[in-house]
Model the fold of this input.
Amino acid sequence: MTTNRLPPTRYTPLAKLFHWLLALGIVGVFCVGLYMDGLPFSPQKLKLINWHKWAGMTILMLSVLRLVWRLTHRPPDLPAKVLSTMPAWQRVAHHGAHGLMYLLFLAVPLIGWAYSSAAGFPIVLFGMLPLPDLLSVNKELAEAIKPLHKLSAYALAALVVVHVAAVIKHQFIDRDGLLTRMLPQR
Ligand code: HEM
Ligand code: HEM
Done:
């Protein structure tokens, strides 16, 4: 039997849903992280830290699902029009930045979870579901891990800035329609 299936030219609805849901969630959790860090110790700060941890753990779970789905489904190839004008280094940067973002989607919350466990603050998801500790309590280790959470979150933020700048360049300078691959289809 012959099949007429062509390689995909756009992201599927589920890939788009994952992209926009997690883009919103990650930017939100990052902003809450920055805001709560500057607050003096107070019940409000503790409440925000809990919300940050619950949202961060939800992002971790969704990112695992997204990664499994991504590894089992072929993404659209870059359009020939884009490839023809893209220098080799940009192609490497394009795929490299996506790969690094996926890595950090897992690393940032996992490091946050490890920090919380080592600091002696176990996670009770949404105040109802206790999660296992990743590490046993060790205040010295917690102090060593804390800056790694910040550093990895800042690295992710920097990649996102580069990513959005690249999308803007494709949309308004190259005008190659790359953005439409990630937008809802009418
Ligand atoms: C994608 C997910 C996440 C992002 C983007 C993120 C980002 C951030 C940022 C930007 C800060 C402020 C860092 C600073 O300026 O010092 C922060 C702090 C913090 N994060 Fe996250 N985070 C995420 C997930 C998590 C998770 C899953 C946990 C724990 C389960 C967690 C626990 C914490 C804690 C406890 C702090 C406060 C540290 C303190 O000031 O005592 N984060 N996070
Ligand atoms: C205004 C904001 C954003 C726009 C316009 C945008 C647009 C896009 C577009 C057009 C693509 C597809 C590129 C291609 O066709 O190869 C893409 C892919 C991607 N974006 Fe964004 N994006 C935005 C924000 C974000 C944010 C905040 C994150 C991460 C937190 C993110 C993570 C990703 C990832 C990981 C991919 C690769 C998807 C894959 O191949 O599986 N994006 N984005």
The CA atoms of residues 21 and 59 lie 9 Å apart. The longest strand covers residues 124-125. The mean pLDDT is 94.
